[in-house]
Amino acid sequence: MSLLFLPFFESNFELPELDTTIVVGICATGILVFELLLTELTSPLTVSVLGVMHNVVIVLFFTLLGERMSTGQATAMIVAEDSHLIVSLLCVSLPWQLLALECA
């Protein structure tokens, strides 16, 4: 799906350098492995909440460096992050019969 937007943002179709591709692949695999280990040691809720906090920290970092966010961008981020936290907390507090229906 994302390849459909490529002509709008890129002027050529060159592939990135092989070194860059390998480094990004290793980093993505490392992040996945650490998330799975964290899920094994704690709970999926902890991983979900840490993922939301990770996004908030990244946005705050770039905002403090001078990046400007429009009102629409800020509102979308707040709604997305808050709704993710609310659904995660509801999934933990729901009885197990509703868990399969609502949180699957």
Q: What features would you describe in this structure?
A:
The chain has helices at residues 6-9, 18-41, 44-64, 71-93, 96-102. With 104 residues, it is mostly helical. The protein has one domain (16-102). Helix 2 crosses helix 3 and helix 3 (44-64) runs antiparallel to helix 4 (71-93).
Supply database-style keywords.
single chain; 104 residues; 5 helices; extended; mainly alpha
What is the H/E string? HHHHH
Number of strands: 0
- Helical content (DSSP H or I, runs of 4+): over 70%
Number of domains: 1
> What general outline do the C-alpha atoms trace?
extended
- Give the uncertain stretches in residue-range form: none
Strand content: under 5%
Average pLDDT, all residues: 80
User: Counting H and I runs of at least 4 residues, what is the number of helices?
Assistant: 5
Topology summary:
Layout: H1 6-9, H2 18-41, H3 44-64, H4 71-93, H5 96-102
Transmembrane segments: 20-38, 45-65
Protein name: Gan protein
Organism: Symbiodinium pilosum (Dinoflagellate)
In short:
By secondary structure, the protein is mainly alpha-helical.
